[in-house]
Structure formats: C-alpha cells, structure tokens
Design goal:
Elements lengths: L1 E7 L2 E7 L8 E5 L6 H8 L7 E6 L2 E3 L4 H6 L2 E4 L11 H6 L10 H15 L14 H14 L4 E5 L7 H16 L3 E6 L2 H7 L2 E6 L2 E7 H6 L2 H13 L18 E11 L5 E11 L3 E5 L4 H11 L6 E6 L2 E2 L5 H7 L1 E4 L14 H4 L11 E2 L2 E2 L1 H14 L16 H14 L4 E5 L7 H16 L3 E5 L3 H7 L2 E6 L2 E7 L5 H8 L4
Parallel strand pairs: 3-8, 3-9, 6-7, 7-8, 13-20, 13-21, 16-19, 19-20
Antiparallel strand pairs: 1-2, 1-4, 4-5, 9-10, 11-12, 11-14, 14-15, 17-18, 21-22
Helix pairs in contact: 14-15
C-alpha cells in the first residue's frame, strides 16, 4: 500500500500511509484508538475506497472496490465484531456466498473443512449453531471461513480483546502455524505485549500516519523496558515523567460512591467489566482511563443506571443503588453525560428549551398538575445559554443548529443545573476545539472545588493528568491500576493502558 489517504468529514483517518506485507509473516499494526489502523485495513479489505494512493498484490497494481474483490485477491478480514449468521450452521456460514451451481455439495464442503481444521489445529463441529459457540469458537469459525476460501492474507482486528488468556494463547499458536505454511497475518492491535509476542514486523500508527516500522526480532532482543518505552514514545510522542496539574488537593472524606466487585455484561453477552472495585470521594475528580472502547462506556452506564450490574454492588451516599433506575439515581443527585452527545445526549430536532427539561419535565417548577409552564422553561433554558456561554440564537433554537462544542456545553449546563453530588463524564472534550476543551475542564474543576465529585472517563493523557486527583486504569475490563495523582506518571499509565506491567 503506497501513499494511502482517506478522509471522513472533519477528520483525516489515513494520511499518506505506506504499508508492506511479506509472504509468510505476522505483521502488527499498533497504535491507540483513532490512529487509523482499522481504516487502513478496511481499505485493503474493500470496505472503503482510498481518496489517494495505490495497492499492489504480488507485483501487480490492483483496484479493490469491494470485499469480494479483496477475497478474490486472497485477502480476508476477521472483524472485531463477528459476522456469523446466527441461524446458519458453522458449515453453512463457511459456504455462504461461495458455493456455486444448482445444488450445495455439503459433503464436499465438510471434507474440505475437516482438512483445514486438522492442518491448523482449528477443530470445530461443523453442525453447531453460532449462538451455541464460545467467543473463542466463534473467532475460530471466522478464521476458518477465510481459510476455507483459500485466502493467503488474514487481517485480524483486535483478535485477543474478547478472548480469555488460554484462548489468546491458542490463537497465537494458530497464527504461528499459519505463518509457517506461508500465510501472511496482519494483526490490528493496541496491545503492546501481544504485538511483541508474535510479530515479525510492527508498524506503528499515530494520528493517521505511519510513525515507524520496527523489526520484531530487534525489539525482542532489547531490554523489555527499553523496547516498550521506544514503542510508547512512537505511539504517544515524548512521554514526560510527570505532568502539571492545577487541581486542588481535596480532604479525604467518607466515600460518596463505592463499587464493589461489579461485573457487567457487554453487547455480546460476555462479562465486559470484571470485579470492578473503587470509590469516589466528595469534591474530587477521579480520572478513569484506558484505550477508548466499550469498557469505559459500560462503566459509565452501570453507574448512571443505563446498564445493570450482573453481580456486585454499588452504593451512593451509603445507599445501595445497584437496582435503582436512571430516574431514581438522578433524584439522588447522580448526573450523567454520555460520550455520544448527538445520538444519546439530546434530541436534535427539539428546541434547547425542550431538551433542557428532558429529565425533570414532570416536576415543579417546569410542570404543575401535568401542565408545562412554557414561560418558566424558556427562562430556564435562556439562563443556561447565558451562564455557560452557549452560542445559540435563543431557547427555541433546535439543538441541531449548534456546533458540537456548544452541544457539549449545553449538556454540561443541563446536568450541573440540577446540582448533582456526582457527575459522570464520559469523554467530555472529545472532538472539541482547544478553547472549548479548556472551558469544559475549568468547569469540572470549579464544580469539584464546590464539593461535587466528578468521575472523569477519558483517553486523553493531558486531560487525565491536568484534571484528576486520583487515576484508575482500565484494561480488558479490569481495573489494573489505582493511584494518587502524585504517584502517577504518563509512562506508568500508558503501560497499564496497553497491558504492560
């Protein structure tokens, strides 16, 4: 791949990226979320078309206009979220779209599957249904589907993120077998340890660009700490040992929020959060970080009430809130600002005044005896617009007419107007300009000084260190580090984020 460029509205996903893959190698694409790894591979897999650049396969320049084109060239991709059809058997899923003729030859297909399974140690019952398979077995089926179609290049997107340790080890063994028979594997990952364990080469992506290509053997020959430090610097830039913070130290107080052994199921019905335990004190900003993804969302939602804990307990001001609904938690003083300000935070085609009372429209002073007090609602929204410097023509302006930064200001204003004791902020400054970022961060610090506890979930290192009193790190659904701000360094946190001890 030479000079690959791909833009989306408001963002450059890939910027003049070069990528080479040799026959019979495992090549990792390493980088934080948003670095452009998956976009680059989606181009190779035919899901996206590049705006600029060329692709060559076996010495020939090719045009890959669809996933079918990619498969015909011997390139197959296993996506992070599996694509098996639930009401078809394993064998039928493998045959789907690739068995021609008037009749399906199931016996021939089964013999072929058995041969492939034995060759690569990927045993699977061809007659089972996907919903009866474990996550590891579903992934095995996805890999078999690519091998069944005789692909020479396998692209795996974060393959170990949904696997247990034992399943991950089995996967690495399989990848090495594939390499040994001449197949090529591209591993998309943010896991430093995973990349170092199996890769012949590692390409590091940063902010849509190729930062470096390194030899796996050379890295493994280095001192492990030096190797991880080199990669971390390429991924994140120069890593200082500490970062400045102007957050005032808070007095230790009885915990406001306590999570004890909380587990939450993810969208695939697996345990997404595992035995999460921590507390948040009055008047502190407790920063939670990790590679951006489902873990952070699940944590925010289980505290806000959008998700139920499958086990464990949550207490707020000494009260068990594990089974309380969203509205009940709101009544107790728990505010929640979602990371998805557009689809979850507001109703775009409704006025600011209407959006301002979505959580308390049925209570005085906004409603009396079931009748909305429109004058009071407009006055309330106008006050929010004025106090929080929201650029809008007035309370009756539709939310859709505001910029992303002003929508975020509005969500904060609405939440803080209820004077919550705890506010949960998931990625509150994502996608904002520098001025609005500073405004939001200053607002959260001011609230903490007035006694409000803030749970700040962010993947932004600068934000984490400049705002937090304490820091927790999430990795693969677990809290792998809890530390006071003074004990934390950017390097220590970055390593924990990537699973490096």
């Amino acid at each position: 791949m030479i000079g690959i460029t791909k833009t989306f509205p408001g963002a450059i996903a890939n910027d003049e990226v070069d990528f080479d893959l040799q026959a019979g190698e495992i090549h990792s694409l390493l980088g934080e979320n948003g670095a452009g790894k998956t976009t680059l591979m989606n181009i190779l897999a035919g899901m996206y078309q590049p705006d600029k650049g060329t692709i060559g396969v076996r010495g020939q320049t090719v045009q890959i206009r669809s996933p079918q084109d990619s498969l015909k060239l011997g390139i197959g991709m296993v996506y992070q979220h599996f694509t098996l059809i639930p009401n078809l058997t394993v064998l039928e899923n493998l045959m789907l779209g690739f068995e021609g003729g008037l009749f399906l030859n199931l016996k021939r297909a089964e013999r072929k599957l058995q041969q492939i399974s034995e060759s690569y140690g990927l045993s699977i019952d061809p007659h089972r249904m996907p919903q009866d398979l474990s996550i590891g077995e579903r992934q095995r089926t996805e890999i078999l589907k690519i091998l069944y179609h005789e692909s020479d290049v396998l692209i795996l997107d974060e393959p170990a993120s949904v696997l247990s340790s034992a399943e991950a080890e089995n996967l690495y063994h399989t990848l090495k077998l594939l390499r040994n028979v001449g197949k090529s594997v591209i591993l998309i990952t943010h896991n430093l340890k995973e990349a170092l364990a199996v890769s012949d080469h590692i390409t590091i992506m940063r902010s849509g660009r190729k930062a470096a290509e390194l030899s796996g053997d050379s890295l493994r020959a280095m001192d492990p700490k030096a190797a991880s430090g080199k990669i971390l610097e390429l991924m994140f830039g120069a890593i200082p040992q500490s970062a400045s913070s102007d957050v005032e130290t808070v007095l230790v107080d009885d915990p406001l929020l306590v999570l004890k052994n909380v587990e939450v199921l993810n969208s695939r019905g697996q345990v997404g959060l595992k035995r999460i335990s921590f507390s948040v004190r009055n008047g502190e900003i407790f920063g939670i970080t990790g590679v951006a993804g489902e873990d952070q969302r699940l944590l925010a939602e289980v505290i806000g009430g959008q998700k139920r804990a499958s086990s464990g307990r949550l207490h707020y001001r000494g009260r068990d809130i594990t089974r309380l609904k969203i509205a009940e938690r709101f009544e107790l003083g728990i505010g929640y600002i979602t990371a998805d300000r557009i689809n979850e935070g507001c109703v775009l085609n409704m006025a600011l005044s209407e959006n301002s009372i979505l959580q308390n429209y049925n209570r005085p002073p906004f409603s009396n005896f079931g009748i909305l007090d429109q004058a009071h609602i407009r006055s309330f929204a106008a006050d929010l617009i004025s106090r929080f410097a929201i650029r809008a023509i007035g309370p009756e302006a539709a939310v859709s007419t505001l910029s992303g930064g002003n929508i975020q200001k509005f969500l904060l204003a609405r939440s803080l107007a209820g004077k919550p004791g705890l506010i949960i902020c998931n990625s509150p400054t994502y996608g904002l300009d520098a001025k609005t970022i500073r405004f939001v961060q200053d607002l959260l610090k001011a609230e903490s000084r007035q006694g409000t506890a803030v749970l700040l979930i962010t993947s932004d290192m600068d934000e984490l260190f400049s705002c937090s009193n304490r820091i927790g790190v999430l990795f693969n659904g677990e809290i792998v580090g809890l530390m006071e701000r003074g004990d934390a360094t950017t390097e220590k946190v970055a390593k924990l984020m990537l699973g490096v001890n």
